[in-house]
Amino acid sequence: MPHIKLAEGLPGIRGPMTFRPETARPLSELAEILLRGESTLSRAERELIATYVSSGNDCDYCRISHGAIAAQYLDGDEALVACVSSNPESAPVSAKLKALLAIAGKVREGGKHVRTEDVERARREGATDVEIHDTVLIAAAFCMYNRYVDGLATWTPKEMDSYRERAAGIVRDGYADLARRLSGGD
């Protein structure tokens, strides 16, 4: 049961966003830029970073929902998403993404946990400064999103089909459109 009165039937971040629509727009716009905006990292890779951080933070709603979005981008490969969530070093992803996930994991622990050698590893694997920057920002943002969702004890559905359905909508329409719909816009 949520710690504050939230709209019934709106899981995870959707409940608090409806409660305070003026905060929903900037939070959604940040997600839109980080996860869907112009980048040399694919949308799937960025969603995997968000999923990995959410998994480490034990935020079931964000782990499942962003994992479902990543799987949408990966032609339904939920096994790959699960592997990245639990043990990215053994996942069948690029060495560059493994290095970026290692950085994301360190950011999740605390920003000062990222070491020069972590960044050097990512660079050796081909990561650019923009990709390193965006990985750190995705990880930091998802620490905030995870704590927002879990700090208010929002509802986390158990059935995967609801996540898959919402994931298809995010892949199709994006995060900014979600904020507009939740706040009662167009």
Rg on CA atoms, Å: 16 Å
- CATH architecture name: Up-down Bundle
Low-confidence stretches: none
Number-wise, the strands total 0
Annotated CATH homologous superfamily: AhpD-like
Descriptive terms for the model:
single chain; 186 residues; mainly alpha; AhpD-like; 10 helices; 69% helix; 0% strand
Structure commentary:
Helix 2 runs antiparallel to helix 10, helix 3 runs parallel beside helix 6 and helix 6 packs across helix 8. This protein has one domain: AhpD-like. It is mainly α. The longest helix is centred in the last third of the chain and has 23 residues. The chain contains 10 helices and no strands. The protein is globular.
Summed up:
This protein is an all-alpha fold. It has ten helices and no strands. It has a single domain, classed as AhpD-like, CATH 1.20.1290.10.
Q: How are the SSEs ordered, and which strands pair?
A:
Layout: H1 14-19, H2 21-36, H3 43-56, H4 60-73, H5 78-86, H6 95-109, H7 116-124, H8 129-151, H9 160-173, H10 175-182
Helix pairs in contact: 2-8, 2-10, 3-4, 3-5, 3-6, 3-8, 4-5, 4-9, 6-7, 6-8
